[in-house]
Amino acid sequence: MPIYEYYCADCRKRVNVFFRTMSEASDEAARCPNCEGARLRRLVSRVALLKSEESRLDNLADPSLMSGLENEDPRALANFMRKMSGEMGEPLDAEMSEVLDRLEAGESPESIDQAFPDVGADSGMDMGGAFGDDDF
Predict the structure, then answer these.
(1) How far apart are CA 36 and CA 89, in angstroms?
(2) What is the pLDDT, as a whole number, of residue 130?
(3) Which of 17, 50, 93, 110 is the most buried (most CB within 10 A)?
């Protein structure tokens, strides 16, 4: 079943149009699923690239990603954690997003650990120890 992306000039939205067969698929036959408009312009669809776990870990080993961690910079820790989440394909929950927002604002990991004592508890992660002397 082919799926094509279009921009609808009538409702000004990006839409997906499904066709039952390849022979049915044509720009003339396409109709907007939102407004039934026929003024559609076909778009180039986004492409997803599958990565192996090894290539994801290689991307995380990039030295530029680690810059700032040695200086105990909370912003660098937040950046690293967001990139790690993206590379591993695991979305952040609302509570962890707030923790990272607070790190990006410059708040210390210790004060965040006091405000969110349960974050990372299941994994054994201690935010307050994120920059401890034992880590370096």
Answers:
(1) 35
(2) 45
(3) 17
CA distance linking residue 63 with residue 45, whole number of Å: 33
Identify the three-state secondary structure at position 40. Answer: strand
d(CA 91, CA 30): 34
Give per-residue pLDDT as tens, 104-129. Answer: 898 888 888 888 777 655 544 444 44
What's the rounded Cα separation, in Å, for the pair 117 and 60?
27
- Do residues 112 and 103 touch, judged by C-beta distance below 8 A? yes
Cα(32)–Cα(14) distance, integer angstroms: 9
Q: Could you read off the pLDDT of 34-85 as tens digits, one per residue?
A: 898 888 888 887 776 777 878 877 877 777 777 777 777 888 888 888 888 8
Cα separation, 38 vs 32, whole angstroms: 7
Q: d(Cα 106, Cα 78) in Å, to the nearest integer?
A: 10
DSSP 3-state assignment of 4?
strand
DSSP 3-state of 18: strand
pTM > 0.85: no
